[in-house]
Amino acid sequence: MNKVILMGRLTRDPEVRYTQGENQMAIARYTLAVDRRFNRGNDENTADFISCVAFGKSGEFAEKYLRKGIKIAVTGRIQTGSYTNKDGVKVYTTEVVVEDQEFAESKNNNSEGGYGNNSYGGGFGGGNSQPAAPMAAGDGFMNIPDGIDEELPFN
């Protein structure tokens, strides 16, 4: 079985490209900084930087909603490969092919800049054209402004 579960923060905004041809498909690449749980006596925090690639709808989701500093949970599979670079040297690659990705914290919990400081218009990321979402009501739930529901990744 080849199954990977990761939780970490994006090191930069996803790089998204689209395939050529009739049925264009999004391919999003990003790197997750995943904290190591055990430091073996080291007081310094260490992290692994894991390359991830998301195809199709997952790639479109990454392009629209994921930004540097956002903490996400990813499930997928490890894929290895190799290619010969322009200097004739064989390069080996390892990356996680994303099957599912989701936010791992509320936007207000993220203090790493970007998503948590409401710089993405108060919605779930993606542009400053949306009005800021109102604060939570007394019951702890937020009211979603009219017209924003088609922008949400779930309906």
State the main characteristics.
single chain; 155 residues; mainly beta; OB fold (Dihydrolipoamide Acetyltransferase, E2P); 2 domains; five-stranded mixed beta barrel; 6 strands; 37% strand
Can you characterise this structure?
This protein has 155 residues and is mainly β. The chain folds into two domains: 4-106, Nucleic acid-binding proteins (OB fold (Dihydrolipoamide Acetyltransferase, E2P), Beta Barrel); 118-155, no CATH class. Helix content is 6%, strand content 37%. The protein contains one helix and six strands; from the N terminus they run ββββαββ. It has one helix at 57-65; strands at residues 4-10, 15-18, 26-35, 47-55, 71-84, 90-103. Strands 1-3-4-6-5 form a five-stranded mixed β-barrel. The longest helix has 9 residues, at 57-65. The radius of gyration is 18 Å and the shape is globular. The model is unreliable at 111-137 (pLDDT under 50).
Note the topology.
Blueprint: E1 4-10, E2 15-18, E3 26-35, E4 47-55, H1 57-65, E5 71-84, E6 90-103
Parallel strand pairs: 4-6
Antiparallel strand pairs: 1-3, 1-5, 2-3, 3-4, 5-6
The CATH topology label of the largest domain is OB fold (Dihydrolipoamide Acetyltransferase, E2P)
**CATH homologous superfamily classification of the largest domain:** Nucleic acid-binding proteins
The CATH architecture of the largest domain: Beta Barrel
Helix percentage range = under 10%
CATH class of the largest domain: Mainly Beta
The poorly predicted ranges are 111-137
Instruction: Quickly give the structural class.
Output: mainly beta
**How many domains make up the 3D coordinates?**
2
Number of strands: 6
Outline, from the CA principal axes?
globular
Alpha plus pi helix count:
1
Query: How would you spell out the order of helices and strands?
Result: EEEEHEE
Rounded Rg: 18 Å
**Beginning-to-end CA distance, first to last residue:** 32 Å
**Residues in β-strands, percent:** 35-45%
Mean pLDDT: 78
